[in-house]
Prior knowledge:
It contains five helices and five strands; from the N terminus they run ααβββαβαβα. It has helices at about 20-30, 45-80, 105-115, 140-150, 165-170, and strands spanning about 90, 95, 100, 125, 155-160. It has two domains: about 20-80, no CATH class; about 90-170, CATH 3.30.1330.60. By secondary structure, it is mainly alpha-helical. The protein is about 40% helix and about 10% strand.
Amino acid sequence: MTDQPAPASLQVVTSVENVPAQDTDELEAVADPTPVGGVPVQPPRRRRLRRVLRVLGAAVLVLVVYFLGSLWFVHRTGRSDQERPVDAIVVMGAAQYDGRPSPQLAARLDQVVLLWGKGYAPLVVTTGSKRPGDRFTEAQASATYLEARGVPKSAIVQVGGCHVVRLVAARPRPARRTRPAPRAGW
């Protein structure tokens, strides 16, 4: 910078005391809210609003990540195959329509037919009760469906109501069927 004085219209004012009285009104009207350090001062409301928005944004981000993680975990678990020999295959009841299993129950029972056919269990336990006015329980509808697809009646235990654990535990275990030899490769 040069040491030459600035023109009168651009003079730097360091104190209001050095300014003539007629110019002080103009200085107050154009006062800069920026402090000397150059950091702009925001009203407290704006800072509070930004802080609230940041916290809400972080909370939404956490919820989205949690939701997507849960979806991934459910998908991964649903796609896993845990076929292995067991004492019994238990089929939880679902809706039945006058002795005919609902599509959801039929899908469960089709999986049971596959597993039982591979020799993974000597016993199939069908569960489920009925609503007032129904002629069949979910367990009866499931047993009929399984018998029609080749599972012998002697391998099916029907359990109606909520006594599944006690009745299955009290029943003696039949001799385990031999499992077919595993296939080579995948």
